[in-house]
Structures are given as structure tokens and as C-alpha cells.
């Protein structure tokens, strides 16, 4: 155990990397997928069930937790780990993205953002200093600096101004974070799809100095091709010896493509959100359990999967409980999806360590291209 957070890069295969982020609360194997626990819970899952899928770290949401139940209340109750019964590492986002995307009547200034809560309309102010204070009260292991994330597409001048503001906020975040052994602060690269703006952002972040670096401002409507084009250069602009985190990504093929381009960490609500709406991710693509073709099918979702939904229940049962609007449907499908995403991460870690990532990637895409099994 260590009282500092550090990153050890074990193997590379092309741009793909595998390593370990050492933290006082446990090691994070990279590439790592972080399930999203927006409001101190991964929806439809018990914390021990999330851990059983192979997750080493969760993501918590500063914006939602500051509004309800409030960071101050969580602090009084012993911090976010105790509050939600999760003893492994937690990364919290800064709240900036949600302020921009969810809040009405927001006002952006050099100091920060004033906004009205989407819950009750109450007025709040979020700045780099307040974001650092909230994340400290939560007790998160990895803290994200406060930034602005404009939606794409956006014109060059808007992207440049936003990036420069985010870099000024990054410096203020670093000052407000201070020296906190056992906790890490990540900077966030911005600049849209523009290589020169991304480079300017990376230079500013490296001058400030962070424990890790995120590629922000992607997966906001630009499409996979544009995202991958940006990832062809953006991770290379960041330090080699620090973790690289792609925020808010994504679908299985997004994740594989990101790791191929040098990304170490990702998060997305997709596995849990899709599970609650009847979609299951499998080796052969997406299965929509709502379809009538599954009503008499005794087979599992994925014959090679070892999650409880696949080992103990049939497609027919999963179809039935979803149609009957039983809570167990979302629980089982979410468990399966999170299990599958962690299997992808373990598969990539093993392949990179063996120097076989290209072989693994080809097999991954070939399996998905087959499509689901034929109806009985």
C-alpha cells in the first residue's frame, strides 16, 4: 500500500498500453472501465455486485451529489466511500459538463458558473475552488479539475475561448486542490477536434502539472469517426508516464478504438442505462430482449458469458420480466452488461501484455459482425 497515487506502465503494443494505477484504496488495472455511480449508486446494482464484475474503480458525479444529498451531508456521514459502501477507488468528475448540459438559466463568467438546479430550481454557483471543495468533502481518490465543455460542432473561436478559460480554471483547480497525499488531481485537455488547440491545451496542462490527464470534450455529438480522428493525435500530446482518461466513452467498439489509440481509462452510463431499457451487449453484438423472438428461447444471452444473467436465466425469462416491468430485468441485464465491459478490458489487458492486441481486436470485430444467434 502507498500513501501516494502513482502510475506504472507495464506493457505497450503499438499505442495500446496496460499498467496499474496504485492508490491507497487498491490498484486500478488499465485499461480500466469505470461504471458510473451518478448519485452514489450504480443504478440497479449492489456495490458488491459491481465489484464482482471486475470493476476496480467507480465514477461519482459532483453536480448531482452537490445538489442531493449535498457534499456537506456526505462528509458528515463519513465520506462517499462509506456512504455508498464502496471501499475501492472513486473518481469524481468536476460537475462542469452537467452544469452545461442539464441546468437551465446558467450564467458563465471568468469566476465560474451560476445555475439553477434541475431538481428544484434553487440557485447555485460552481467555480474551480468550489468544485475542489466539494470533491474533497466527498473524499474521492481521483479529482477532476473544473472545466467548460462546449457541445460539438462549435466554431474555432468558441472552442479556443472555451479551451483557454478551461486552462485558467485548471490552474485555479490545482491551487485549490493543494497537497493531498493519497488523492490525485487530473487535468482535462480541451480544444474540440482541432489539433493545434488540443496541443496548446496539453502544453498548458503539462506546465501546471497533474497526476493524470483526461481527453475531454469528446463523445458530445461529433460521431465515432471524428472522435477517432481526434484520438489519433490527442493522447500523443499528453505525458507518456501518466494515466490518460477519455471521458464519457462509450460503446464497446468506442472503447476498443480508444485503447488502440493510447487511452487508459474510460467511463460511460451506457451499460447500466441500456440494461434498464432491455439492451444487452454480447460478443455477437447487441441483443434487444424486448423482441418477441426471445419469448420461447431457453438459451442464455451469451453462451460464453459467466455472469448470473447468463448462467442462471434464459432469454425467455429475461424477456418475460422485462415485459412484466419487473425490477429484476434491469438488475440482471445491467449486471450482464457491466460484466461484459469488464471482460473486454481484461481481454485487452491480456492481449497488450502478450503483444497480441491486433489479433484480439480483429477477433473482437469479427465476432460482433456475426450478429446475434439465429432464432429457434
Number of domains: 2
CATH superfamily of the largest domain: Queuine tRNA-ribosyltransferase-like
Sheet/helix structural class: alpha/beta
Radius of gyration: 21 Å
What is the architecture of the largest domain at the second tier of CATH?
Alpha-Beta Barrel
What is the end-to-end distance? 52 Å
Helix percent reads 40-55%
| DSSP summary: helix tally | 15
Widest sheet: strand ordering: 4-5-6-10-11-12-13-14
Number of strands: 16
Strand content: 15-25%
Which stretches are poorly predicted, pLDDT < 50 over at least 5 residues?
Answer: none
What would your notes on this structure say?
This protein has 376 residues and is of the alpha/beta class. Strands 4-5-6-10-11-12-13-14 form an eight-stranded parallel β-barrel, surrounded by six helices. Helix 1 links the parallel strand 4 (32-37) and strand 5. The protein is built from 15 helices and 16 strands. The protein folds into two domains: 6-268, TIM Barrel (Alpha-Beta Barrel), CATH 3.20.20; 275-369, no CATH class. The chain has helices at 47-52, 62-67, 71-76, 80-84, 96-102, 128-138, 156-177, 195-208, 224-231, 252-260, 270-276, 308-312, 315-323, 327-353, 357-369; strands at residues 6-13, 16-23, 26-30, 32-37, 58-60, 90-92, 104-108, 113-116, 123-126, 142-144, 184-189, 212-215, 244-246, 265-268, 279-282, 285-288. The mean pLDDT is 96.
Amino acid at each position: 500500500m502507498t500513501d501516494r497515487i502513482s502510475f506504472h506502465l507495464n506493457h505497450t503494443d503499438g499505442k495500446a498500453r496496460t499498467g496499474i494505477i496504485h492508490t491507497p484504496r487498491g490498484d486500478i488495472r488499465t485499461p480500466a472501465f469505470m461504471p458510473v455511480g451518478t448519485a452514489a449508486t450504480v443504478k440497479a446494482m449492489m456495490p458488491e455486485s459491481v465489484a464482482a464484475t471486475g470493476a476496480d474503480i467507480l465514477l461519482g458525479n459532483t453536480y448531482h451529489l452537490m445538489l442531493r444529498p449535498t457534499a456537506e451531508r456526505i462528509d458528515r456521514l463519513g465520506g462517499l466511500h462509506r456512504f455508498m459502501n464502496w471501499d475501492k477507488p472513486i473518481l469524481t468528475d468536476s460537475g462542469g459538463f452537467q452544469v452545461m448540459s442539464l441546468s437551465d438559466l446558467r450564467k458563465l463568467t471568468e469566476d465560474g458558473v451560476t445555475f439553477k438546479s434541475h431538481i428544484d430550481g434553487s440557485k447555485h454557483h460552481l467555480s474551480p475552488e468550489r468544485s475542489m471543495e466539494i470533491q474533497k468533502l466527498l473524499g474521492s481518490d481521483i479529482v477532476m479539475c473544473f472545466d467548460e465543455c462546449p457541445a460539438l460542432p462549435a466554431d474555432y473561436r468558441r472552442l479556443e475561448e472555451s479551451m483557454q478559460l478551461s486552462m485558467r480554471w485548471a490552474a485555479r483547480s490545482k491551487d485549490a486542490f493543494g497537497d493531498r497525499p493519497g488523492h490525485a488531481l487530473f487535468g482535462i485537455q480541451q480544444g474540440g477536434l482541432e489539433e493545434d488547440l488540443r496541443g496548446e491545451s496539453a502544453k498548458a496542462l503539462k506546465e501546471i502539472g497533474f497526476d493524470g490527464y483526461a481527453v475531454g470534450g469528446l463523445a458530445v455529438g461529433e460521431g465515432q469517426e471524428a472522435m477517432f480522428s481526434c484520438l489519433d493525435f490527442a493522447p500523443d500530446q499528453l505525458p507518456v508516464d501518466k494515466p490518460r482518461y477519455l471521458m464519457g466513452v462509450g460503446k464497446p467498439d468506442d472503447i476498443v478504438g480508444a485503447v488502440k489509440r493510447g487511452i487508459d481509462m474510460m467511463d460511460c452510463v451506457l451499460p447500466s442505462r441500456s440494461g434498464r431499457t432491455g439492451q444487452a451487449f454480447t460478443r455477437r453484438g447487441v441483443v434487444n430482449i424486448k423482441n418477441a423472438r426471445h419469448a420461447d428461447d431457453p438459451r442464455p444471452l451469451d453462451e460464453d458469458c459467466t455472469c448470473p444473467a447468463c448462467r442462471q436465466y434464459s432469454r425467455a425469462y429475461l424477456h418475460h420480466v422485462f415485459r412484466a416491468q419487473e425490477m429484476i430485468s434491469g438488475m440482471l441485464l445491467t449486471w450482464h452488461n457491466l460484466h461484459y465491459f469488464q471482460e473486454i478490458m481484461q481481454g485487452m489487458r491480456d492481449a497488450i501484455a502478450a503483444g497480441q492486441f491486433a489479433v484480439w481486436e480483429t477477433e473482437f470485430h469479427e465476432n460482433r459482425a456475426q450478429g446475434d444467434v439465429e432464432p429457434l
